[in-house]
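May I ask you for just one protein sequence along with its backbone structure tokens in two labelled lines?

_____
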Amino acid sequence: MIYLKKIYNENLKENLQIILNKKEENITEDDLSNINSLSFTKMDKKGNQAYLVNELLNFKNLHTLSINNSNISLWDIRILSDLENIDNINFDHCFFKENAQNMFHYIKSLKKLSFRNCYIEDYSKMFDELDLNSLEVIYPYNEETINVNNLSNLINLKFLILEGCNIKNEEMISNLKNLEILSLISTEVKNLKFINEMSKLNKVYLSPKYIKNIDIGNCKAKILTSYIDMVIDDENYSKGLV
């Protein structure tokens, strides 16, 4: 049995003591290898930011990671790329520096990405070489426009959530032939005729205030307008995004 020498990230240490119901000195490497989901922030109690902790490398079977209220650097992505089983990463209120958002292709096992209220300066190269099945961009902190052309290589994408976003070339969503769920709640679009070309698309979520101004054409997908519908109506939706 190998005990950890010390956990330096205060937020991580507190979370682990709760999850494992153990004091820091009793936490072992085996304990960490049995954890598959984790949430923490890089910020310490004084509000200072640190690099993403190397201690994450002790989580051998980590699949889902949620990072909150943190600055994300190139070094952070380097650490994440060494987590061999990580396939789902959620960022909430994070600020991406040094074009770190362009380095996700180094995380080979990555399948699901979520960005909520995050600051991302440039989306143009962000999705190059990725093979995702789920992507969320929800209420970006800044107003940078997302060019849907840049998503075209995500050919295996099943869930696309662009909520509260500025987007252009939305008709290029039709290139995502495997898409099943599309949410554009609080995102303004003028024409959705392109969804008639998407045979696997079965649900589209739109804001009621935009629906009357959108040309939907002969849409076969089910159009829904509320978060209640989103949670209750489609169990697969929630499964795909957690």
